[in-house]
Amino acid sequence: MEDLEERLAALEREVGDVPTAPLQSLTKAISELEEKVALLETKEIRQLREKYSMLGDWVSEPGSSFMDAALTTRNKADIIVASEAEMRDIAQQLEQLEALQQFINPSSFQNIPPLNLKLQPLAELTSLVRQNALQQHSEMEQFLDTYNKTIRTLSQQFVQWDSILSHLEARKKGSVQ
Fold first, then answer.
1. Does an H or E element contain 123, and which?
2. Which of 9, 37, 45, 136 has the fewest CB atoms in 10 Å of its CB?
3. Are the CB atoms for 12 and 19 separated by under 8 Å?
4. CA 120, CA 47: separation in Å to the nearest integer?
5. Which residue, among 4, 9, 69, has the nearest Cα to 30 in the 3D structure?
6. Alpha-carbon torsion, ordered 83, 51, 44, 100, to 10 deg
7. What is the pTM of this model?
8. Distance in angstroms (rounded) separating the CA atoms of residues 136 and 1
9. How far, in Å, are 23, 50, 79, 80 from residue 67 at the CA level?
């Protein structure tokens, strides 16, 4: 560690960026940073980190080995700390959703699957009745169409016969007088 500090001091002298204050040891600076991170870390974040490490492979996605290599545990903790407010908001929304669960999924909806099994034969019967009704409707339309054509033809025939009879009666009256 001391060798590293000496090399760093030599490099700073060469570049010309020599700090005005005396150099702190690198280990001391790291320990101070660790203390500051520990102060920032709340109980919830510690619990989250513990749960995250317990879940292990369940949390990581396939192909996330690059992310694991790129982000250290500290980086991940920083990301979690940065999104703490959003996570609290999501937790609050989940609690609200849980409170409203009785309205979203009431117990009466739980009874639907058994009732659906009871209604299945009725639905099949209704489908058959509908098909029969459509068939009867079609047959009735065809019957009424045939009936109307027959009545129309008969009416025309009666009108023609009336015309013939009227013409014959008119000729008979003309020849009798």
1. helix 112-176
2. 136
3. yes
4. 50
5. 4
6. 80
7. 0.34
8. 98
9. 34, 19, 13, 15
